[in-house]
Every structure is written in structure tokens, then in C-alpha cells.
Amino acid sequence: MDKTAPRRRTRIQTEKREVILEAALEVFSAQGFRGATIDQIAEAAGMSKPNLLYYFKRKEDIHRTLIERLLETWLAPLRELDDVGDPMTELRSYIRRKLEMARDFPRESRLFANEILQGAPRIMPLLEGELKTLVDEKAQVIRGWMRAGKIARTDPYHLIFAIWATTQHYADFDVQVRAVLGPDRGGDGRFEDAARFLEQLFLEGLRPKPVS
Amino acid sequence: MDKTAPRRRTRIQTEKREVILEAALEVFSAQGFRGATIDQIAEAAGMSKPNLLYYFKRKEDIHRTLIERLLETWLAPLRELDDVGDPMTELRSYIRRKLEMARDFPRESRLFANEILQGAPRIMPLLEGELKTLVDEKAQVIRGWMRAGKIARTDPYHLIFAIWATTQHYADFDVQVRAVLGPDRGGDGRFEDAARFLEQLFLEGLRPKPVS
DNA sequence: CTAACGTTTGTCCATTCGGTCAAAAATTTG
DNA sequence: CAAATTTTTGACCGAATGGACAAACGTTAG
Questions:
Q1: 20 to 30 A from B70, CA-CA: which of A29, A58, A83, A90?
Q2: pLDDT recorded at residue B207
């Protein structure tokens, strides 16, 4: 009898865990880790607290699961940045995909922002490992484009940071963006406006200069 | 006897309140409002909890005082954006000042970011009032520059958002920036690199196009 | 010196929160 | 169906937390 053998996951377990994670995403992204309570998550998931704790032993387990999943989705657009395509087209697509993620997955963006703001206590290793590796790799790709004269020479790391910052801003600082734009301009059209602006900013800002 | 008359503030009160606010800034910016405890703040301020509560009746009072003060400092650079100067120079200075604030006042930046992330429950009126008014005004200034052909035509609101996002990123996402850049490139030089990059991005990205 | 006022602290309290447990209810399996 | 297993819940617990309070201590003006 091997008590350490991982028991197979039941249908109900699979389903309920999903419900819990969805509810937890809602609560964590709005309140942060410490601000969120198990009771809130349980209520949002439509079950009692002990019942929720039957599926996830600890509050932190829910959070960790959520963040680990998130990171994959989150880095997907950058992974797609491709060496072979046309640089300007690749960058435009990357910016657009990131902006779409801010629009379609704002809760995920805020969950991530919350974690980083608090000093990334739960995902530091991932940042220094997987994330850094990926960024290093893509920075090399971008540097290649610069050397080939396809885009202006500049710091590829800070370019990536700028794309992250500007796109995620529309998810993380959403209430501020809405407040400033007002009810009229802050409506559904704000993402198209943002897309147009960012495209112009980055593509013009990176237009290669002729060698003098 | 007018009990509602505001009693004059003692020397000790003035000093201690300052100590508390400094300690609270440290704790709130690192833990968020709910994550921070009065005990933590009291310890950081070097006094007992009841003593602290003698100067600020409630935890929220400390937070509110902090945020109200912050907002003035925070908007100062934008207020300085001047109609009369050369547009490109004005924008360059604005970006530089904002980046310096991210470097010199990262705790203030994080405090603000935390508040906005949680939906700005305590400062919504300020965002819709004072902040919106200021941004509207400056957006008009920028639009004037565009009409005069001094900078490229684009959306002034999203331009301001982009400057906020990129500069504050270096304070709010500092641990991520450091993790990605690594110990060598993530050192003190990262702000100069960022300044160079952002200057190029925005100034090239906004270079006026000749009318065709 | 002393009365009045300002400051500090130990103690206490109610609530909230993360988490446990045993027992009931539901489901699956043979 | 009945046994075995999984799921659900009410009741409970200890620790943490925001805050109250009165008593002690310190300071200062008359």
C-alpha cells in the first residue's frame, strides 16, 4: 500500500477545482492575496468554506496554482515573436496580442501585477529562471534585427519592458484610464484607440535610420 | 466652549505624525492596505500600537493622509508641462521627471499602484475630479502642438498614459525588471538605460511628419 | 509646587480569518 | 441492493487584527 501514490482525480474534483480557480481569480485579482479571504472565494464559488478546503488544502495552494497557469498564458505572445518574419510586422503583432490580452484577461493581468508589486514572494524563481531565459532569447532576436538594419538600434530589454508596461496599463490601471477618459471616450472604443496609438508610437519610434 | 474648534497641533504631534507617515509609507507600499497591519507600522515607527492610534484614530486615516499628500507630488511634473516651451523639449523633460520620480520615490509609486489596482476605492473622486481636469487641460496643450505641426498627430490621452505606464513600470515592477536584467545589467545603471531608451522611443515616435 | 494638559502603555475586547474535524449526505462500485 | 468511497457541512479552534480605555507618566504654565 503506497500511501504516497497520487490518487486519480475524480470528475467532480476536476470540475469543482475549476470552479474554485475561476472564483479565486475574481477575488484575488480584485483584492490581492492578503486582501482576499477564503470565505469570499467560497461564496463566489457557491460552496461552503470547508468544502472549498477539501479541494485545496490551503489558501496559498489556490494562489500558486492560479499563478503557475497564468504564467504560461502570459508568456505565450512573447514566445511567438519569431525570428523569421518581418521585424516590423512581428512587433506590431506582439503589441496587438498583448493589448488583446489586457482587454480579454484583465483579471489575470491584475493578479500578476499584484504579485509583482508585493515583491513577487511566490514567483521569484520563475522570474529569474523561465522568464529571464525567454526574454534573453528574444532580446537576441531583436538585436539581430537591429544589426540587420531592420529596426532602429536601441536597448531590446527596455523595448520589451515598454511594450509590457503600455499594454498591461490598460488592464492594471483600468479604473484610472476610465476616470480620465470619462464616460464617453472611456467606453469600448478605448482599446482600439490605444492600439492605434501604440502602433504609431512603437513603429515610428523604431523606424530604422539610414546609415549616415 | 466650542468643542468642535480644531485644537492647535503640538510640536510633538507634528513630529510623531511625520514619523508615522514615513513608517506607514514603507509598510503600505510593500504590503498594500489590507496586507499592512497597525502593529507593523507601529514597530516601524518605533512606538506602541496604542500610541500610534493616539495620533491617527484609524488605520484608514493614515492611508488617506498618505495618498492625499502623494497626489500633489505625483501630479507636479504634469502641471509643469508648459504651453510656451518647445514641445519636444517639454515632453523630454516630462518623461525625465517622471522617470526620476520612479527612481527616487518608488514607494509612493507602489502605494498609488496598489490603490488603483484595488479599484481606487479611496480616491475615485480625486481621479474623476482633479486628475481628469488636469489631464484634459494638458491634452489640449498637446493637441495644440499637433495642430501647429510641432509633433506628430496622435491621441494625446493615450500618449500621457504611455508615459505614465513606461516610467512608473520601473518603480512598480522593479523586482521583475531586476530579475530579467540580472545582477549585472540590473544595477544602478538601469535608469540611465531606461531614460535613453524612452527618450528615443517617444521623441522618434512623435517626430512630426511633413505634410504630404 | 500644583493643576492642567499632553503623551504613553498594559490590558482587554470583538471580530475576522485560516484551518480542523467528525459526522452526515451523496455517489460510485461490486 | 449494500459496501466502499467521495463529497458536503455545521460546529469549532487558535491566532491575528483593529481598536477601546483607563491608568500612569511627562511636561508646562501659572
A1: A29
A2: 86
Quick one: fold of A7-57? Arc Repressor Mutant, subunit A (1.10.10)
Compute how many other C-beta atoms are within 10 angstroms of the C-beta atom of residue A203: 16
| CA/C1' separation A56–D11 (Å) | 21
A3: confidence class by pLDDT, cuts 50, 70, 90 = very low
Whether the pLDDT of residue A106 is over 90: the answer is yes
Provide the CATH number for the domain formed by B8-57 in this structure.
1.10.10.60
**Per-residue DSSP letters for A116-164?**
HHTT-TTTHHHIIIIIHHHHHHHHHHHHHHHHTTSS----HHHHHHHHH
B179 to A131: CB separation less than 8 angstroms, yes or no: yes
**B66-205 CATH, one of 3.40.50.300, 1.10.357.10, 3.40.50.720, 2.40.400.10:** 1.10.357.10
pTM: 0.93
10-residue averages of pLDDT along chain B (212 residues) = 51 90 98 96 97 97 95 94 93 97 97 96 93 97 96 97 98 98 92 98 86 56
Q: A207 falls in which pLDDT band (50, 70, 90)?
A: confident
How many C-beta atoms surround the C-beta of residue A201 within 10 A? Answer: 25
Torsion sign, CA atoms B111, B114, B116, B120: negative
B9 is near strand D: CB distance < 7 Å = no
Interchain contact, B193 vs A155, CB within 8 Å: yes
CB < 8 Å to A151, chain B: none
End-to-end Cα distance, chain A: 76
Residue B211 has a pLDDT of 60
